[in-house]
Write a sequence for this structure.
């Protein structure tokens, strides 16, 4: 297939969603988990058509996800909890058009065998840093662990990624383990406060991510 750059997902949207939308990242993530400091409430602004809306859930019911998908026009569900393969399968049956991103948290090691049971019931994986919270902990895991990635399913790379990681992303893009990396997911490192994004930093990061020919990968 033709070489492509990593896509960009900005998660934890809340206070200045429209300003971030103007930058046209590929995905915007909205957290529907009430304990989160970035829990999304209120009205959804009119975003550019190219920006895909991702609902972030933690052990929510299918009924709740279904309601929010309809209310906010969500195209993706990012599952951050202990959702089982059976749950993912059932969710897909209820909302066939919904793309499912199943999240796995990594710290010092990770058993990739557990991905096998999700291969047929989700569309993407997302690898985040294991911490006190389901996401948005602000620090990264050791990406070299992805050398053991056994799947061909595209994945999102998340966990404490900021402008300072651009050199690391460039290096990662040159390595075989980046082959199926579909998108870079950013959140807390681009915030002025939880839910309020730093537009200047995001704009700079997006430009470096999408314009740099070194980031091109064959998927």
């Amino acid at each position: 297939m033709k070489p492509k750059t990593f896509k960009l997902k900005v998660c934890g949207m809340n206070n200045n969603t429209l300003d971030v939308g103007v930058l046209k990242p590929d995905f915007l993530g909205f957290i529907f988990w009430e304990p989160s400091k970035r829990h999304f409430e209120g009205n959804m602004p009119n975003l550019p058509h190219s920006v895909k809306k991702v609902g972030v859930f933690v052990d929510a019911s299918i009924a709740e996800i279904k309601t929010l998908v309809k209310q906010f026009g969500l195209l993706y569900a990012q599952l951050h909890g202990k959702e089982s393969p059976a749950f993912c399968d059932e969710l897909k049956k209820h909302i066939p058009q919904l793309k499912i991103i199943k999240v796995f948290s990594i710290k010092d090691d990770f058993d990739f065998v557990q991905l096998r049971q999700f291969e047929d019931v989700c569309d993407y994986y997302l690898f985040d840093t294991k911490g006190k919270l389901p996401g948005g902990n602000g620090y990264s895991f050791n990406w070299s662990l992805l050398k053991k990635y056994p799947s061909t399913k595209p994945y999102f790379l998340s966990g404490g990624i900021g402008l300072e990681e651009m050199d690391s992303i460039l290096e990662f893009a040159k390595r075989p383990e980046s082959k199926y990396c579909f998108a870079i997911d950013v959140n807390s490192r681009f915030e002025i406060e939880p839910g309020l994004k730093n537009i200047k930093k995001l704009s700079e990061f997006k430009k470096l991510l999408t314009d740099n020919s070194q980031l091109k990968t064959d998927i």
Q: What stands out?
A: The mean pLDDT is 90. Residues 155 and 181 are 5 Å apart (CA to CA). The beta strands are 7-10, 27-31, 52-57, 76-79, 99-106, 124-129, 155-157, 181-186, 191-193, 196-197.
